[in-house]
Amino acid sequence: MSNLASDPTDPAPPKPRLLLIEDDPELGPLLVEVLSDDYQVEHARDGHQGLHQGLTRRFELMVVDRGLPGIEGIDLIGRFRRHGITLPILILTARGTLADRVAGLDAGAEDYLVKPFEIDELLARLRALLRRHGDTAAVLPVGSRRLEVSSRRVLGGSVAVELSGREAALLELLARRPGKVFSRPELLGIVFDAEDGPGSVDTYVYYLRRKLGRGVIRTVHGVGYQLGTI
Q1: CA distance 184 to 164
Q2: CA-CA-CA-CA torsion sign (56, 44, 82, 147)
Q3: What end-to-end distance do the CA atoms of the chain give, in Å?
């Protein structure tokens, strides 16, 4: 008899993390309830809160309302893209003209769903986004090694190296934009929490170098840090 059948006692794989940025007081909680069957959902209720959560925490997907208070949805998506956030984003909006759809896609969204919409269509579109982006987002090259994003492990040496959440977030950001030099303020704003001081960046660069070798992160004097060539 085959031994390949799954063990019912095995833990279920973790749900993908999804950031919902939606200010509607009725639709937002409804979407959280519906999406929570398949995703770990965090709900931001305005553009400023969404920006903070999107830059300081790791997600696999975002659903962004266009008409947000604080920072309008199109502007918010543009800010995420300028900060190197590459995960797939779906826009929800009441604006359905061709010009509106083009503006959303040009800002960096992968998909666009007009309100009112069917929940089944939203779920299908999110599954499609995960399928299209999951394989390329799961493993990132880090010199001669690779970062396995979901497990926070660096593979390719004699042993797999386990990273903390903050170490993995810092290395992932650098690995997604290997040609970019990030200043300390940029890294502080994207990877770290508001209460962290400027020295946090240097501390975690030190931690990564201690685990992976000094060449994992290159110092560009007077500018900041970029991915190295371990």
Answers
A1: 20
A2: positive
A3: 45
